[in-house]
Structure formats: structure tokens, C-alpha cells
User: What shape does this take?
Amino acid sequence: MILVINFGGQYSHLIARRVRELGVKSEIAPYDISASQVKNMKPAGIILSGGPSSVYDEGAPIPDRKLLELGIPVLGICYGLQLIAKFSNGKVLAGKLKEFGKKTLKVKKTGKLLKGLSRKEQIWMSHGDLVEGMPKVFTVLASTDSCPVAAFEDNGKKLYGIQFHAEVVHTPKGMRIFRNFVFDICRAKKDWSIKDLQGKLISGLKKEIGNNSVIMGVSGGVDSTVAATLLHRAIGDRLYCVFIDHGLIRKGEKEEVTGFFESKLRFRHFYFIDASNKFLEKLKGVTDPEEKRKIIGHTFIEAFEEKVLELEKKHPGIKFLGQGTIYPDRIESAQPSKEASKIKSHHNLTLPERMKLKVVEPLREFYKDEVRKLGSGLKIPESILNRHPFPGPGLAIRILGEITPERLRILREADYIFIDTLRKFWQYDKVWQAFAALLPVKSVGVMGDARTYDYVISLRAVTSVDGMTADWARIPDVVLEIASNRIINEVRGVNRVLYDISQKPPSTIEYE
Ligand code: XMP
Assistant: This one.
């Protein structure tokens, strides 16, 4: 196992995923983990991630320096490299130079870490501080025009560092560097394979649940579907699945999800609950985004709890609550960053304490791409595995302002047409997420010689790695044109369509 120590960098998860892609297990630990805790975990190697701080900042996350003395190889990336430099009496210059984007790495010596790299390589930089010099025991391997120490190694102490981000795709030889570190330097074994895990997972679930039953909320999304399928394989009809329709789901969603669970997977206990009236009633007149999210979150838990109580009475064996939590969800909720300001209160199903059910999370160890691989091993159709993310509050956060039945109808139709067009022209799988949003303004148009005064629809399609940052997708003009024409012609109440070309940050993916 390779342990990634997280200093709050946006790429920490990506580092762990890269290591797993090499077939080696990787976990993330908080920056204040002690050296003795790490020793007990017996990792083959340690990676110190990047992070937004400067090693000189007051309150900067500083790890236990004994981590560097365990005899376990340590690779520092960006802030991680600066930490190693600081602990080893190197010269770290604060805030002298901000370097961001694609740069050329000049490799002087490949050493062990950069084995296989050419004299010049493209890399991705994103830093404010830099290391100017290292003590003699370190070999400086590479530099850039503005960064004298872009990579170093000390094979005696097994300390390695790179200033650039090897984990992102803009560093094409990044995987080679990870391979060098993980296999040649750490001598880790390749024993992490998702396909082989299926049987082990199912027998683990059987043991964990015993003769009891599990109740679970499903949304039709990838995570809950794969988790429910695994549970179903493990305990069969002792799984009770509940799908709550909050009235904010997309066109065709009910049929798709119900069809899959009932007809395809043949779940005996699948309950579709239409709670839309309750939700829409509570949302009447509400325009504030956070208010909307809160109402939906609370009402969701209420509706779910009501069904759980009813089922518990009939089936006393229900002792577990199944959840589709995946690895990043768990890590993020375990480490609320002090600095991270609350941008949106993401709503996902949280267990009300009084339910007194034990939680079972079949996917707690996995990343999204691994969940998809597991799902394909379970023969879940690609159409479900490759679905774009859909937020818990559903269409509510894509209708700016008040949610009314008319606005819901318009948005549902427009969204359906946009997605259908993307699929027809092979664009759907190329983007991370795509959808339509309804702007609560009307504009003037002309249709068949008559003036119209109708709503504006904004189309959004983004590319992203993890939803934390995103770029607008360069969808071919012709595809946008077809979607726009269809929406204006087929959806009553719309006379204008926009394409959203904002990036995250500073925008967000969703509108509220
Ligand atoms: P934002 O809008 O924050 O979205 O850029 C990032 C990603 O998160 C999804 N999202 C949510 N997912 N519950 C969820 O399960 C939520 O409340 C929620 N809000 C946003 C969003 O669709 C995008 O993929």
C-alpha cells in the first residue's frame, strides 16, 4: 500500500487514483497522522501531496517530521517537496514566483525517480513557493526556466521530490514517474485489481450482514446502483430498496430506474415512492438556493424515514442501512477543511441517529472509475454506468428562482432534448456532465410573424476530472444548433437558448 498524506491539495485524490491504476492499493491520510500510526499501517511508500499553503504560513499544515525517518521511501509533490526541503535544511523561497500551467522540464540527471524521461519533458506547474537549493546529499535532477530545483532525490534517506504535478494529464510522463517510485523505489506489489475483488466483496457483505436485512435508498445513479447490486448478490431478497421521487427528477427517469430494478435485476422489494406533492408544496414561493437545498434535504429524510419505519414493522430483520458512499465522500467528510468556505450545502442522504440502523457501505474503499469497473463486472448496463452525475436536489437547483409546475415542465423537456441530441451525435460520453437550466427571465422573440415573450434556457456541458474544477465543453456548433432549434420549436414557453461558457472556478457547475 502507498499512503498519500493530504495537505489539502486539489489533486490528492488523483494521486491515490494514479497509484491504484498501477495496480497498487493506495489510501489517503490526514496531514497530522503520526509517524507511529503510519508505521503501523506498513505502507511500502509515502507520498506527500500538494496543498494551498506556504511552508512559512502561520498555521500551515506541517506533518510529523519523523515520517522522513521511518526508512520508508517518501515522495513529495509540490508543497510536499517544499516540506522535505524545509525539514532537510534546503532553501525554500516564499511567494517569489507564481508559476502556473504547462512548462518545460529540463532533466539534468534521471536518477531513480526520473528514469525513462528525456532531456526535455512537458510538465504541469502550479505553485507560489520554490526551492532554490538543497544540501549536497540530495541530487538535483531537473529544473525549469524559473525553478532551479524541480526534482531531487536522496537515495540514502529515500527522499524524493518533484515540484510539478505528475498526477495530472498535462504531465505526459507522470505515470512513468509514479511507476519508478512505486515499483523501483518502494518495491510495492501489484495486487489491487477491481475485477478480482467482486467475489471477496460479496462474501464480505454476507458475513457482515449475516441473516439480517438491509434497507437502502437508491437514486438510479452509478454509486447507489452498484452498491445495491452488490448487496443484492450477497443477500438477495433480504434487500429493500426505496426510490423517492421528490418531483424534481428528469423526464423518463422513473421508468428507467424502475425498469432496471424491477424488470432487469428482478428486485423483489423495490419501492417507488411518489412524494412529489409534499416536496413541491414545501418549495412553493421559495427562491433562495440554500433554503431550497435545506427543504429538499429535510423532506427527503422525512420521506425515507417514514418508509423505513413502515417496513421495519413488517420486516423486523431490517438492521442495516445500505449506502452508496464512495472513498472520496468518506475522506472529505472525515476531514472538513478549516479554510474551505461553504459554497453549497450538498445534500445527500445522511442517517438520522434515531433510525438505529447499522450502516453498510459496499463501495467505501473505491473511486468512481473503480465503481464503474465493478459495475461492469456485475453486468450493469453501460447506460447506467456512464450516466452523468445528477445532484441530490435535482432540477430544483437548475430552475433559478421559484419552482413551479410550468417551469418544471419546460426544463424537463429542454433537458431531455439536449441530452438526446448529445447522445445522437456521440457527445454525451465525451463530457463530465451536461444539462439544461431555466433562467427566470423572459425575453422577446418572434415566431410565425407573432411576437413571443418567453423563458430563456441555458445549456451547460462541462469537462472535468472530479467536479472540483471544470471547463466548458467545446461541443460542435452544429450539435448546439440542432439542440437549440429543437428546444425552441418543441418546448412551449421557450424562445431563446444560450450556451454557458463559464469555467469553474469562478463559476460552479450547477446554477444554485
Ligand atoms: P458544483 O455546482 O458545486 O457541482 O460545481 C459539482 C458537482 O457536484 C454535483 N452536485 C451535487 N451532488 N448533491 C449531490 O449529490 C448535491 O447537493 C449537489 N450539488 C452539486 C454537481 O452536479 C456537480 O457534478
